[in-house]
Amino acid sequence: MSKNLRIAIQKSGRLQEKSVNLLRECGLSFSNSSNKLKASSYNFPAEILFLRDDDIPQYVEDCVADIGIIGENVMIEKGKNIELIEKLNFAKCRLSIAVPKNTPFSSMNDLEGKRIATSYPVIVQRFLDEKGIRADIHEISGSVEIAPGIGLAEAICDIVSTGSTLLSNGLREVETVMKSEAVLVANPKLDEERAGLLEKLLFRIKSVKTAENNKYLLMNVPDEAIDEITSILPGMKSPTVTPLNMTGWSSLHSVVNENDFWDKIDQLKSLGAQGILVIPIEKMIL
Ligand code: ATP
Ligand code: ZN
To answer: Which residues surround ligand 2, an ion (CB under 5 A)?
Structure first.
């Protein structure tokens, strides 16, 4: 019997929906009802396991699941024997130290001998060791941001994305401990068949990621500007140029990266491009 790739994703929480969407965009179809523990993919030899994110590293190490999607912060905190395969570009956040907004803070030295509440004791301890600071770490599993207010700690280390939760709890962010995003992790000793399935899935994930970072561009351009426009829009090989039914004008199609998207648009406009259409790309196979 041929094997399934067992993929562990978060059962509910911040990673759940995007993990499901990513697998779907990779062509796996499966039912996603929140009360199920498992689902089979109909069209790719995979089984999806819905678990608490904190448990996923252990399950992947123990070969209960072959691969998983978790936050990089959880991967590092748990310190299991699992391999980071690919960063996934979502659930971007940072782990930061925060103190009550009126507490003076000039450097981490100010936390010497103080109490820090966190759900990430391993990461915080490592950070303190690097800085040569001794402080008491108080591990709590949730609502870390209320710890200073109830007298449990002088500082916290918690996940921050916009900082609004800190602000509404009268805290200010003073130091970034690590940056994190969702990552694909795998058991380092997959058998050949499952390693092959992972490779296939990874190829699809990369195609989805590349597509997300690129846009398809269509525009009308004056013929005399084609050379210059081509030089700023190389596309995947070179742009497609087809003549319009109007002398002196052509239609030009290309692909542009999100990072320098607006710069390119400004340049195109100044070179006389008109009617610029920007279209999302679903997959991009390089
Ligand atoms: P549970 O264990 O009950 O599933 P949790 O608090 O561990 O809950 P989430 O809050 O869903 O789980 O967070 C899961 C992961 O998502 C975190 O480990 C982190 O990597 C990421 N994350 C958490 N908060 C944010 C945020 N505000 N913005 C972006 N990513 C975040
Ligand atoms: Zn969790």
So the answer is: 53-54
